[in-house]
# Entry
Amino acid sequence: MILRRDHIAGVAFVAAGALIYVFSGDLPWGSLAMPGAGMMPKLVLGLMITFGLALLARGSASPPLSDIDWSDRSHALCLIIAAALATALYTTLGFVLTMSLLLLGLTAVVERRPLIPSLAFSVGTALVAFLLFSWLLKSPLPRGPFGFL
Amino acid sequence: MEATLDSLLLGFLVAFRPDVLLYAFLGCLVGTLVGMLPGIGPLAGISILLPVTYGLDATKAIVMLAGIYYGSQYGGSTTSILMRIPGEAASVMTCIDGYAMAQKGRAGAALCIAAVGSFIAGTLGVVLLTVVAPPLASFALRFGPPEYTALLVLGLIFLAYMSSTSLVRTLLMASFGLLLGMIGIDVLTGHFRYSFDIPELGDGIGIVPVAVGLFGLGEILSTPSNTVTEKVVSPRLRELWPTGTEWRDSAMPIARGSLLGFLIGIVPGSAHIISSFLSYALEKRLSKTPEEFGNGAVAGVAGPESANNAASTGAFVPMLALGLPTGPVTAVLMAALLIHGVPPGPSLVSEHPDVFWGFIASMYVGNLMLLALNLPLVGLFVSVLRIPYAYLYPLIIMFCILGVYEVNHSVVDVWIMLIMGVVGYGLRKFGFDPAPLVLGLVIAPIFEMSLRQSLIMSNGSWWIFFNVNERPIAAALLALCALLLVLATRSLIRSRKDWRNKLAEAEEGS
# Structure
């Protein structure tokens, strides 16, 4: 049997639905005349599991799993790691420092652009964005260990 | 009618205020850029810029954000015609004949026809919006919880029926969105649902982190820089004027596209995408020379471009009159109004006439601004496309993080955005359209509240939704749901290719 795209997607949604249903155990269903906090989530979970099963049942009409193009996965992984690091450091290092590092990492390391232009672009852009939001639009951004930025 | 004209006059007094004009202009300018740039659509653009509007009053905020939305429909045509890249999903169909015209040296004419068509359609759409929205809003004042429940069910089923993916996949995404919308404190009983002791989740998951993650970050994750071309030809100003034949060939497609687009815009779904596809199919069928389609047919640019602009205006009808979003963009715009303390819906016209009419009047002005921006300044906009994508996407990621954080000053929101980015990337790989997910997330609180209130009203009887004597509107809406489900099931059983399959193929092909 060839494993197909909708087989995997269907199983994933059914499994996720079942797992969340287990987590919903403490939510009261209530009654139809006085619905509880758990009624709607459980109804929706039921629908999600049903549609997941329908997807699974019609899975043979979908393209084989091997047809999915994953050639962009390394690009996606690099971006996610960089963005996750930036998020983790955002409130500690502040906006300017974190974003300068993020932009530099993406342009110089991931995209292999020349270091000096990348550095100028990264620091310049982060500073302009900081000034625009923090001073002009009066929308406070996290400031780093240096206080003023 | 006289009252409508008086109210519209009030709207123009608001729209012509210098500060409102400035924000309309900014919205149109940013919208044009957002529509042109690959990797960032109107939804991500609006979501990222939402925090910028916090310091503004509701009128200026909605005028600017809506300007981004309809401005992006104009901007999307530029990259489609010059580079064969749809900067915005609704411009997919323009790529085919717009790029073919550019290859024949008629890029300027194609851009001009797209801009003029967009202007006519946008303006006609606003005229229809002016006429349709107020009476619809007064009619909707009769709606109670059962009618709203039925309307939301109809919206979801319509969305699934119109979807280019499949009924099951769309409903699955909508269910997923509804489930996400149930995270947080239950407003009726005070129970915490799926918040896993994270205080920030008590208020639920915001639409901005989800929308930016799915449509902003998710799009960038699946677009490596080596797949984006930076070669672009800039047309000269004197090349912009179409010939007499080109004008004649585009007149009727613009008229048909405008009307078709507006009607499709009112119904839920990715209306601006669907409308451009249907307009293209209609023009090809009506053409005396269908063989020209794909080889630079003027009607292939004029029709779809007019349709997607009219659809983006039509989408405002249910949002303003009923308080219901027809797609993720109107959902974010609704969230923007709510943030500013202005609940969209039937009472908007009577309680906030300055916002309602000011917004509508600003769209007349905005369409004129866009025409002025998109024709003479096309060369300037094209130069933006020369920014290497390797520098552009890190910038978009920075604005994604910045925009999401600024909504609540919460890092948890940024983490949610990152997770949704990965989810969006995965969903795309498995052929799911994330738009119904966002729609489900937005309507979840309204849906749950109206369903529970209906059941409480009827003492637990489902009959309240089907009682023709007491609730004729709800019963009629649910009958329409049943009809749509029958039609959808029939096409499933027959497994025959219809326009939805062709739309899916066109989207994949782009």
Remarks:
- Chain B is about 70% helix and 0% strand.
- Strands of chain B lie at 184-185, 192-193.
- Chain B has a mean pLDDT of 84.
- The two ends of chain B are 44 Å apart (CA to CA).
